[in-house]
Amino acid sequence: MNPRKTQLLLLTFLLAFFTVNAKQYKVVNTDEPQLLGTYFEVLEDESAQLNINEVLRADGYQPSDKKVPNFGITPNVYWLRVNVLNEMKASPYLHVQYAQLDDVEFYKVQDGNVVDKLISGEQVPITERDVKKQDFFYNTKLSEGEEATIYIRVKTSEQSLVPVYIGKSRDLFNNVNFTDVLSALYFGIILVMFMYNLFVYFTVRDKSYLFYVIYILFVGLTQLGFQGYTYKLLWPSSPWLANQSVIFLPAITGIAAIEFFKHFLQIRETSKRFVLVLNILNIFYLVNIGLSVAGLHSLSQQLMQPNAMIASLVILGIGIYMMRKGSRSAGYFILAWGVFLAGIFIFIMKDLGIIPYNNFTNYILHIGSAIEVVVLSFALGDKINVLQKEKDESQKQALLALEENAKIISDQNVMLETKVKERTVELQKSNDELNKTLIDLKEAESQLVESEKMASLGQLTAGIAHEINNPINFVTSNVKPLKRDVDMLLDMINRVEEVSLAETSIDEKKSAIDSLKKDLDFDYLKQEIDYLLNGINEGSSRTAEIVKGLRVFSRLDEDALKKADINEGLDSTLIIVNNTLADNIEIVKNYGNLTAVECFPGKLNQVFLNIITNGLQAIKERHGGEAGGKLEITTLQDDGKILIKIRDNGTGMDESTKKKIFEPFFTTKDVGEGTGLGMSIVYKTIVKHNGKIDIDTEPGVGTEFTLTIPVVHVDNQIAEIG
To answer: What is the distance in angstroms between the CA of the first residue and the CA of the last residue of the chain?
Structure first.
């Protein structure tokens, strides 16, 4: 025989031997599904790397002595095998009734060969499973009298409980449906208590109720999450959320329970140490969440149960302390919390395998939490009653105090009336004096405003006189020589007329006329007349331009709102201050293309005059007669607003001066050189235009004023000072 064939036959024999030696379970025709736990043989795979073929050849299987195998929290993989003989007409199903197993794989082996397999577990979305349930089902596809060995591979980062039922599909699904009804009933209780306490919270606005409704919601979701219902109903396509929710929901529940406990029993007013301890427990819950998100889900799961147990015991201990201090609410809390802790204790003992797995131990948290939320709702209601009694007592005491105060006030009123009459006479006298002082101040202010106007008028007059004097002088100085040249020209015309009337030949007349031109230097005379006429024309044009600038600046005929060109107003202002410019001051104009602005033109020109004059004075103060002075004027339009920037490189202002610059009567000039009303008038004018003023200044560097004025005047805009 071929050695290779011999080896294959031997291998087949060994596989058949191990398969046959697996414990056998006969499926009989019964309506009650059975637990397979004691029929399993278990192989622990510490490497978590074995595949089904390696498992078929492996030894080291240990018989299970528990109806529900419990392997604790471990990174190892466990293989369970059982030999199933079907004596029913229908094909039996396997039901793994624990939704928190990450990986569950079913293998059907016959004659040493894998004839069927199913990959399931929490990592497979419910939407992709053959049976759309939170638990795991496998159809053995065994005919009546057919036998096979079933292998189940189990791996999870959480508690490794493996309750496996076998029976008819109808009976298994009926059990699941019954479980669904119980869970729906439980969540109905939770939802009713949630809505009731939420309504009470919106009525009384007590933070205890707020944290309690959060606690109720998450304790309900946590219990449903342990049974896989949150996975099935909320995120059936997200294994990641299903895996993380086992940490998230209990952690948030724990935090909400601690915050509710602190507010319900007023721990903050009792002991800061208690608050510190409770806050540390909250931090541990947050650490659990962080570890789970970071991928350390198994470590987070291992820490969660001790953290929850410690937190429960700490809360219980503080509650007992508060109860001994006479807190009635603490008594209710201890009762509710004690029931819940008893449920947690039984549930953990079940997870640790100390007590058996059954419907009671599996659903004990549902029972305990339902009782707890009901009792705590009664406790909150009792707290409101206690607070109401305290409030009534407080109101009674307050009423007595008010009556006593009313008597005291009645006695004091008589004395007060006498004193009020005496004081009224004194106040009337003071009021008369204040009114007189106010009238005097208003008269003084009016005089100062008139003084400011006269100062501006004086500056305007001086500027116009200086500006118009040069072109007028240019015209008058050219008139006399022009008259002389015209007289010479008229004399020449008369003499040419005499020559033309003389009875001489044409050549003689032409010779006589040429002689006259030469005597009068006719060509030079024409050039001189043209020069003088051009000079007169230039002087008159300059005079007209100055007059136009004066008219634009003053706008005496435009006291109402008008549309005006801001650039034109700035140019007219520069004409007015031209006489104060020194040769060392450079004027730079960066004018934008502006829309006509709805404004009071004359008042805006007064604003420009005050700011430009102050800027020129600051430049002269810093630079003196040296070169380097610069005044830059920029205009631009942005989003329905006109911006006028006037920048100088003068002395600048410190922060104190900047804050006071718009105050009436504030001035940095010497006594007699200014009224201190110029910039106050500037501010009031910009306010009147619904604009704003921004100031950017630095001592020794210079100052920039930015005026922002809306293109369209709107009465309800508000001015600002930058």
So the answer is: 106
Q: Do 326 and 358 contact (CB within 8 A), yes or no? A: no
Q: How far apart are CA 617 and CA 674, in angstroms?
A: 12
Contact 612, 574 (CB under 8 A): yes
Residue 703: CB atoms within 10 Å? 24
Distance CA 163, CA 513 (A): 143
How many whole angstroms from its chain centre is CA 298? 36
Length of the chain equals 722
Orientation of helix 566-576 relative to helix 364-501, angle to 10°: 60
Query: Model's pTM, two decimal places?
Result: 0.48
Could you give the CA distance from residue 413 to residue 308 in angstroms, rounded to a whole number?
A: 65
Quote the tokens at residue 414: 């008589």
Using CB atoms within 10 Å of the CB of residue 338, give its burial: 0 to 12 exposed, 13 to 18 middle, 19+ buried.
Answer: middle
Instruction: Report helix, strand or coil for 79.
Output: strand
- Per-residue pLDDT at 8: 41
Q: Which residue matches tokens 């500006």? A: 467
CA 86 to chain CA centroid, Å, is 65
- The three-state secondary structure class of 594 is coil
Give the integer Cα–Cα distance in Å for 107 and 445. 104
Distance CA 387, CA 383 (A): 6
DSSP letter for each residue of 208-276: HHHHHHHHHHHHHHHHHHHTTHHHHHT-TT-HHHHHHHHHHHHHHHHHHHHHHHHHHTTHHHH-HHHHH
Query: Nearest CA to 59 among 70, 43, 48?
Result: 43
Contacts 24+ apart (CB under 8 A), 169-175: 169/90, 169/91, 169/93, 169/137, 169/139, 171/31, 171/32, 171/33, 172/33, 172/93, 172/95, 172/137, 175/33, 175/95
Note the pLDDT of residue 715.
65
Place of tokens 């700011």: 611
Check: CB of residue 575 under 8 Å from CB of residue 467. yes
Task: Convert the pLDDT of each residue in 543-598 to its tens digit.
Answer: 666 665 555 555 544 567 888 888 888 888 887 777 667 778 888 999 999 889 98
pLDDT band of 7, cuts 50, 70, 90:
very low
**Above 70 in pLDDT, residue 676?**
no
**437-to-45, 442, 443 alpha-carbon distances in Å:** 102, 9, 10
Nearest to 358 by CA among 179, 575, 609: 179
State whether residue 48 is helix, strand or coil.
Answer: coil
- The DSSP secondary-structure symbol of 503 reads S
Give Cβ neighbours of residue 173 (< 8 Å, ≥ 6 apart): none
